[in-house]
Amino acid sequence: MLIAVAVIFANLLADLTYNYLDPRVNGVANGEHNTGPNHKTNGCSFLEFWQTFSKTVSALSALACLPVIIFLAIFAPWIAPYDSSSSAVFQVGDIYNPPSASHWFGTDDAGQDVFSNFIFGARISLIVGFFAAFISIIIGGVLGLVAGFFGGRWENFIMRFTDIFLVIPDLPLMVVIVALTKPSLLNIIFVIGLLGWTTTARVVRSQTLAVKSRKFVLRARAVGAGNGHIISRHILPLVMPILVVQAVLVVSLAILNESALSFIGLGDPTTLSWGQMLNYAFGRGPCPLGMVGVVLPRDRHCMGGVGVDPARAGA
Amino acid sequence: MPGRPTVEKDRGEAQINPTKRTVLEVQNLSINYISEGKPPARAVENVSFTLKEGELIGLVGESGCGKTTLMLSLLRLLPSAGQIVDGKVFFNGKDLTTISEKELNKIRWKEISIVFQGAMNALNPVRTVGDQIAEAITKHMPDFPKDKIQGRVIELLDLVGIAADHKEHYPHQYSGGMRQRAMIAMALACNPQVIIADEPTTALDVMIQAQILELLDNLRKKLGLAIVFVTHDLGVVAEICDKVLVMYGGVTAEYADVDTIYNSARHPYTQELLKAFPDLTKPKKKLSSIPGYPPRLDALPDGCRFAPRCPVAIARCHTEQPMLHKLGDMHIASCHLVEASK
């Protein structure tokens, strides 16, 4: 079920990203005031965007990376050579095996195939990443819109509240909260989501302020539209591009945060994520031949985090 | 193209009735801009006018004399710093300055709509023009059959001379004149009784300007619309207006029907304004300008607001604010000299 939701969410993200790449929206996001009847400038901005993007090696490699990881996560049971969730009985000879044809990345201390664990670990990392980012974006987006649109006392209150959250060092606070509550998957998602919205709120607020002062908002008011209508139909479409960029950024941050939490032993012990694998590899001391079990998860986990990040940077 | 049955049904009764009904009546309206730590800026003071069905009133004045403030205040659309401190705005007997926001939202656009200045900024760049025209219809006519909305949008665009296939286009794909006409189509969407046109022809070339004026004039005759026309172009005023309200520095300088203004203006500002405007019958005549600038709202003169620039000012003008003097049935001027000559 979770996977189904993840797929839907990935689709949604793709749609939104498409919107962002849409030349019309893009032109607006850059604050272009196109006064002429000629819309070439807007068409060009997409071309320019692509030209810049395609020249950036990190952006291109990230663009290639991300779908691969998402693909691996979604189709893990079909791709992974072994089922890492099965509790089959292992022989002593199976543990700490070096890489071989049957175990590409070797086996770990429990005799499980490290390659299969990578692939299944992608699932948890992505689920945490996307859901935590989803929570962050919703909270940050709503607070930013409300603060920017209504202004006055509400804005002051919300933005000072944001400042408070902004100055708290995220990771130590996460560690404390997860340590106090049960380190379950859901708790980790909530903790990361509830602490990662601050930048989004600030960015969304500033964009809302800019859009609010445009004349079509006054026109919408003259049409007799209420605040809800103005926000959803006139302000949100112009804040959306920024929100999407922010969402991608938060996804990568959330994946890294989850890995960090898992690595220091605060991950959900019943699930297997990249951070969890690092933790096991680190804590259970793989034998020299199985060193590959330490090195590879770290690479993979960087690939995940880095894969999302430059895609955002390029965008 | 089918006719506009909804419109004719609405207006039919009124057209039979020869005595025209007053739709909009503004009484002694005063608006202050309030900012902390400063005395309030008196942007508009004691302005009154009435608008009857099918009438077109011109609101004339230099930039910054409160025309747009006055216009926005009619529907209470001013930013929160701008407050109506005195006066009333009656629409069909209802005082718009006191009714609730909810009631006002029903009148906004349904009864009184606005054609905004600078149509590019008044259109949302990420939504199609057709979608934005439909917005007002869905908002105010929830009973309007959903499948007929698109037809209605095409009808409205056709009315202002825009081809139906432009419906799905975005504002940046329109030319300047088309945008302005699309704004007018939008203003007509709910068959309003009053349209406030805020400099609808500014920044357009003369041909498009003529088209738009003709369009507004036709609509007025066809639909019995009452129009408030904000402009600083006296030529346009002479062309289409019935009445003229000349504003200077936020106050009424002169208010009369269009013939009186052009033939027997009494306020020195109106006279100077007319002298600054080319006359086709006297091509050799030199144009004169009014030296100086309109008063700043934070440093208004003690006496008449026009006194520092007035060529015929007397001592009294610099110390005492002139009252509004009634000079006839439909002629008001605020000048000490007018009082002296009465």
Overview features:
heterodimer, A: 315 residues, MetI-like fold, disordered C terminus, B: 342 residues, alpha/beta, 8-stranded mixed sheet, 4-stranded antiparallel sheet
Structure write-up:
The complex is a heterodimer of chains A (315) and B (342). Chain A is mostly helical and 315 residues long. Chain A has helices spanning 2-21, 23-29, 40-55, 57-74, 76-79, 114-150, 152-167, 170-180, 185-195, 198-212, 215-222, 227-263, 274-283, 292-314. Chain A has a single domain (2-83, 95-314), classed as MetI-like (MetI-like fold). In chain A, helix 10 (198-212) runs antiparallel to helix 12. Chain A starts with a helix and ends with a helix. Chain B is α/β, with parallel strands linked by helices and 342 residues long. Chain B has a domain at 265-342. In chain B, strand 7 (194-198), helix 8 (206-223) and strand 8 form a beta-alpha-beta unit. In chain B, helix 5 packs across helix 6, helix 6 (146-159) packs across helix 7 and helix 7 (176-188) packs parallel to helix 8 (206-223). The model of chain B is unreliable at 1-17 (pLDDT under 50). At the A-B interface, helix 2, helix 11 and helix 12 of A face helix 3, helix 4 and helix 5 of B.
Give the CATH topology of chain A. MetI-like fold
Note the total helix count of chain A: 14
Order of SSEs of chain A: HHHHHHHHHHHHHH
Number of strands of chain B: 12
Strand order of the largest sheet of chain B: 6-7-8-3-9-10-12-11
CATH architecture of chain A: Orthogonal Bundle
* Poorly predicted runs of 5 or more residues of chain B: 1-17
Oligomer: heterodimer
Overall 3D form of chain B:
globular
